[in-house]
Target: ATP-binding protein
Amino acid sequence: MRVLLYILIIIEYISFYYVFFGKRQFGKGKWSKWICLGIDLFSIVFLLNVNQMGLVLVLALIGAIINVSALFDITFMENLKLFLLCYPMLTILESIIQYGLNYYLELNNRSITIIYTIIIIGITWIYYALAGRKIEKSSFVLPTAISLLLSAVLFIIVAMITYFTYALTEILHTANGKLGLGLVTVGGGIIFILVLLMIYYFNSQQRFQLENKMLEKYNEQQREYFEQLLEKEQKTKQIRHDIIAELVEIKNLNDSKEYNKLDEFLEDMLNEISGISNSDYDVGNEIINTILNYYLSPIKTACKITVKGYIPDELSIMRRDLCIIVSNLIKNAVEAVETVESSHRYITVVIKSGKIFLDIKINNSCNRADGIFVDGKITTSKKDKNNHGFGMKNIENVVKKYDGDYTYGKENNDFWAEVRVKNNRSSKK
Model:
């Protein structure tokens, strides 16, 4: 029974981390798993020789922390932060189920604990099967400061529930004791649900604000792009207006056989026309044109830029989603080349649009010491890691929405990223 309880509590916490905290990336360290297995075996052997319920629970909680660290790709500090939030939430849920079991069943405390732990594991995975796997896996993960504050509040609530339960059962012995326990239990259940809803709502608001900022950025980029187009159109009109006078001047220089002046005059004309025609990047799509020109035009003299491909304006992909994909890919490429020597800077953008798929591939130079990859995963190289790194997550979310693929890689000083999403033009936006 003691060993079973130890194993069930570890499974309970692993399940909660996986389902609610979105820890679905398994760690690659083999040594950590062997060490964890050794600790588990030692704990099991130790529990066979003790009969103290409190010691079993303490060892199980320590084992849960160690097993989560070994199983998932998670740092110790992140694990500790999530545990401080997970423990009081599970305690509240356990107290609710425990009250119901004590009301209907006459069993010892250890048996009750095993039963409600099994029930919680079942509830967790039923929720995951019905709804959990359909929502964003980071929906219940909070920033560190807010998570710690909420943990402190939950610990206070757990202490209050424990005190009221003890007072009603051991001190007061009133006729309405069961009613009071029922109210405490219902209150605990409401608190548990409200906490989950609050976390989900907070993260939804955060994502909404980030998307709004991105759309505002896109609108600003679009305004600047259209201002550039307007300036280009004005220059084009000016050339059209002056073309007759310039042709007359060309004829006069030719008639007077002033070929040197004629050559200089023609060169000036060609430079002006070339400056207009090369003032932007055009792949046929207004959104992508806006983003390409906003990020690439300012650095085109300091970086070798190649843009290939064509994509129409009419796509089944939502404009916002297309903006999220392209802007993050281009922005990351521009930030990467800024860390490279000017002679080695390059960005290549290749876009292919078919009847079924849209492919966008970015190649760019990068600093070999940037540390773009950590344990095979892409990460932000900025110091403020809490406020950055959302770009790649946003790309992954959009790609998943369209049943696409997002791949990337790095070799020496070259980085590439490729996005492929379904683009059924017959479908509605």
